[in-house]
């Protein structure tokens, strides 16, 4: 009975939402038609927000990758918030798993020799790939979040291959803090320099070059380090308990 | 129907099946793995829809890390749902 | 010119800095946190004074609004930010009672909770609102399970499930709006709402309303409240009722008035509010545990605020905002007092707390807080209820007023019973409260009495409600 009611309710919700989503114009059809209104200057423009990003993104932010331009520059404040969400998740997990930390780790079976050797070989390459992803975030697809996740997955590999391995908590915390401070610090410098928080105060340089797009690479490196260390911290906290 | 539509339709159906397995399975480990499959297919779909950066994130977090974390969590509790 | 973004950036900066500080000195963490909250309170007051003159638009990243994110602080937003920061400062004094490890994580989470609630109140961008909703709710999950006992985990788990469903609905609502209008700025959305398909508009509104309803403790979505409030550490409970609930209800007001511009009578919001009031007050009446009673009473009070927003006349919404102020102050006081009482009586049962209020340092602030929550005239709680009633009365909703009054009588009944137990003579000896307990109590009591006797400054703020209802900042 309960299951039937739940199923009917779920189907109803899906129908209601599905009908609403069915009215979404797909792709970038009529992208130019959504003329936005600027509430501060109180004027109607003949531009639409996505079209503006596509047209002016490169000039206004210096970033070749428009996704990065939107994520880090136009909506950089949201990215700061998302980084904080991840930070909170890792802090929360650390706080919940705290009681178990003092418990002794029991001896566990060693992993297969193939796994051990392969993970030792792959570890460096995966970290290199993650670093590449976030360093080139303003040029190629990717950025801080994927790069950090890739780095964390390389640590995950080590955790799986070597049961006794565990990352130094103190250094993870320090890396996390310094990366977060870099992000907020860049924002505060922007506030000082141009009275806009997270203002892109460095010269843009030439597009498609590594040293371009002002503060975007700095922020993305910070995000990458932060995400990597936080996810590693979460994995470590979860691995900490052994029966 | 072009190839793109056919492939994405197959992937979406596979994703739905995996999601149902994840919801219904009493073995929590296979439920977690089915969730990983959902994430993996989602990341393929993101790639097909020309969002490579989202695809990388989804593949490494959804199919990699969160699956591993979930399996660690299951190891600390019980494997079979009562 | 003062930047409201500092209210978000400073707690965030120090939350990232605390791990480094703890390497150097672990003892200084509570003082650093309190100092940060004091700094934030000062900035909040400055922002509020500036916003009273004209709404502040703080552009982030230097891009004009619909392209970039903008913080939109009107007089009411500034007022609410000031309330939240003041409450956070006073509660952080009580937080020094906290002895349970890991303290570093505790202070980080409180700072981030403050950052999230500030962001929800200040932002003028709907996706940014979602991000800060996430920050607030995830910080709350961490804090709710901080005690690491069964009760704490149960409450936190309930909160996690309902909270994530709520966040998903908020995200769906935002996606629907963006798909039709290709913008995320609240004022831009409000201006061009007519271009939206009517069906999509209703679904989007319903999604946002349900999503923020979880945080605002609205009736069918508030089953997490009693368990979470009961299981969380005492200072955290005070924070939930005075910070995150307030930011949730302000987000709800933003959705109703700023984005969707429903400035007339909203029958379903009023009914939701009435149901919330009834559910909260009646269940509170039968509770035996002090924190559960206060939690249900908190639901009832939030229901009154939702009702005031739903009635939608200027007077009723003024009453709702006044009620937010009085509830933030009064409930924080009561939860801190409850924390002391549970500590002193070694139990949560109210019947075991005979004579605990006979110590004047506890008893007098407690009495002031209870009378204010009940709605007695010389305290701030009176004006909120009175204005909501006036708002209903002027529109002729007599049935609603009668039901509202009936719920208020139930509320008065159980608080009177509580007063009777707490103040009756008893031979039991209770440990004397430390200064970290009675100083916050007295500070909250002073605010309650001061603005109860002299409410003109608050009415000065509430004059801007009419502009808020018309879709302003």
Q: Total domains of chain A, how many?
A: 1
- Which spans of chain C of ≥5 residues are poorly predicted at pLDDT below 50? none
Compressed to H and E, one letter per element, the order of chain A equals HEEHHHHHHH
What would you call the quaternary organization?
Answer: heterotrimer
Beta content of chain A: under 5%
Mean pLDDT of chain A: 83
Structure summary, number of beta strands of chain C: 2
Rounded to an integer in angstroms, the radius of gyration calculated over CA atoms of chain C is 21 Å
Alpha-beta classification of chain A: mainly alpha
Distance between the termini of chain C: 18 Å
Sketch the major β-sheet of chain C. 2 strands, antiparallel
Portion of residues within helices of chain C: over 70%
Q: How many distinct beta strands of chain A?
A: 2
Total count of helical runs of at least 4 residues of chain C: 19
Shape of chain C: globular
The helix-strand sequence of chain C is: HHEEHHHHHHHHHHHHHHHHH
Strand order of the largest sheet of chain A: 1-2
Biggest β-sheet of chain A, characterized? 2 strands, antiparallel
Write the topology of this structure:
The complex is a heterotrimer of chains A (243), B (82) and C (473).
Chain A: H1 2-22, E1 37-38, E2 43-44, H2 49-61, H3 66-74, H4 76-96, H5 113-135, H6 144-161, H7 169-194, H8 216-239
Antiparallel strand pairs in A: 1-2
Helix pairs in contact in A: 2-3, 3-4, 4-7, 4-8, 5-6, 5-8, 6-8, 7-8
Chain B: H1 3-24, H2 28-48, H3 52-76
Chain C: H1 6-24, H2 29-53, E1 56-59, E2 70-73, H3 75-95, H4 103-122, H5 126-144, H6 150-181, H7 186-191, H8 198-215, H9 224-231, H10 234-259, H11 267-285, H12 290-311, H13 314-345, H14 360-374, H15 380-395, H16 398-423, H17 435-453, H18 456-462, H19 465-469
Antiparallel strand pairs in C: 1-2
């Amino acid at each position: 009975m309960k299951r039937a009611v739940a199923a009917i309710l779920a189907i109803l919700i899906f129908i209601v939402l599905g009908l609403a989503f069915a009215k979404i114009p797909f792709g970038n059809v009529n992208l130019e038609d959504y003329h936005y209104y600027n509430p501060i200057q109180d004027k109607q423009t003949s531009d639409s927000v996505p079209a503006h990003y596509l047209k002016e993104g490169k000039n206004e932010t210096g970033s070749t990758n428009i996704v990065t331009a939107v994520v880090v520059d136009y909506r950089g404040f949201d990215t700061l918030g998302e980084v904080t969400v991840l930070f909170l998740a890792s802090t929360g997990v650390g706080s919940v798993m705290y009681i178990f930390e003092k418990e002794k780790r029991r001896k566990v079976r060693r992993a297969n020799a193939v796994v051990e050797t392969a993970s030792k070989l792959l570890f460096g390459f995966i970290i290199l790939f993650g670093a590449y992803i976030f360093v080139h975030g303003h040029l190629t697809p990717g950025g801080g979040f994927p790069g950090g996740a890739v780095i964390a997955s390389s640590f995950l590999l080590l955790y799986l291959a070597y049961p006794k391995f565990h990352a130094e908590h103190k250094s993870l915390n320090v890396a996390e803090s310094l990366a977060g401070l870099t992000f907020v610090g860049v924002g505060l410098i922007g506030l000082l320099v141009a009275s806009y928080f997270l203002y892109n105060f460095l010269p843009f340089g030439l597009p498609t070059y590594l040293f371009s797009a002002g503060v975007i690479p700095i922020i993305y490196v910070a995000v990458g380090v932060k995400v990597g260390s936080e996810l590693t911290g979460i994995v470590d906290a979860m691995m900490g308990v052994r029966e | 129907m072009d190839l793109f539509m056919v492939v994405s339709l197959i992937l979406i159906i596979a994703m739905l099946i995996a999601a149902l397995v994840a919801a219904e399975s009493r073995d929590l480990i296979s439920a977690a793995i089915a969730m990983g499959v959902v994430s993996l297919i989602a990341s393929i779909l993101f790639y097909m829809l020309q969002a490579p950066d989202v695809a990388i994130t989804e593949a490494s977090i959804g199919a990699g890390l969160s699956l591993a974390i979930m399996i660690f969590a299951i190891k600390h509790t019980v494997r079979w749902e009562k | 010119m003062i930047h409201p973004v500092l209210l978000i950036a400073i707690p965030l900066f120090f939350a990232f800095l605390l791990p480094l500080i703890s390497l150097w000195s672990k003892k200084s963490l509570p003082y650093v946190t309190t100092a940060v909250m004091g700094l934030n309170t000062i900035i909040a007051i400055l922002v509020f004074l500036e916003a009273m003159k004209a709404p502040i638009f703080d552009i982030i990243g230097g891009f004009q609004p619909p392209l970039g994110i903008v913080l939109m602080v009107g007089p009411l937003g500034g007022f609410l930010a000031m309330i939240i920061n003041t409450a956070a400062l006073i509660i952080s004094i009580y937080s020094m009672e906290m002895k349970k490890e890991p303290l570093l994580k505790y202070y980080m989470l409180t700072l981030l909770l403050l950052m999230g609630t500030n962001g929800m109140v200040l932002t003028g961008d709907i996706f940014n609102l979602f991000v800060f909703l996430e920050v607030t709710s995830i910080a709350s999950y961490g804090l709710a399970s901080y005690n690491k006992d069964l009760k704490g985990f149960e409450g936190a788990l309930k909160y996690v499930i309902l909270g994530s469903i709520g966040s998903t609905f908020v995200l769906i609502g935002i996606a629907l709006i963006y798909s039709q209008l290709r913008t995320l700025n609240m004022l831009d959305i409000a201006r061009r709402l007519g271009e939206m398909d009517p069906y999509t508009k209703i679904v989007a509104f319903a999604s946002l309303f349900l999503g923020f309803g979880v945080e605002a403790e609205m009736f069918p979505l508030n089953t997490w409240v009693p368990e979470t409030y009961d299981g969380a550490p005492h200072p955290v409970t005070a924070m939930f009722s005075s910070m995150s609930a307030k930011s949730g209800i302000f987000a709800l007001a933003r959705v109703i008035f700023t984005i969707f511009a429903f400035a007339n009578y909203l029958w379903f919001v009023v009914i939701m509010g009435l149901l919330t009031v009834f559910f909260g007050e009646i269940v509170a009446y039968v509770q035996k545990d002090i924190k559960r009673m206060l939690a249900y009473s908190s639901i009832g009070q939030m229901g009154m605020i939702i009702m005031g927003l739903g009635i939608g006349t200027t007077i009723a919404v003024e009453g709702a905002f006044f009620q937010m102020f009085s509830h933030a102050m009064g409930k924080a006081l009561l939860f801190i007092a409850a924390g002391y009482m549970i500590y002193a009586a070694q139990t949560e049962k109210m019947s075991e707390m005979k004579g605990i209020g006979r110590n004047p340092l506890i008893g007098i602030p407690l009495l002031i807080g209870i009378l204010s929550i009940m709605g007695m005239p010389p305290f701030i709680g009176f004006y909120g209820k009175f204005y909501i009633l006036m708002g209903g009365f002027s529109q002729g909703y007599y049935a609603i007023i009668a039901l509202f009054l009936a719920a208020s009588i139930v509320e008065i009944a159980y608080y009177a019973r509580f007063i009777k137990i707490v103040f009756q003579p008893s031979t039991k000896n209770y440990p004397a409260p430390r200064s970290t307990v009675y100083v916050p109590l007295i500070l909250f009591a002073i605010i309650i009495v001061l603005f109860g006797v002299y409410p003109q400054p608050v009415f000065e703020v509430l004059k801007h409600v009419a502009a808020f209802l018309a879709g302003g900042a």
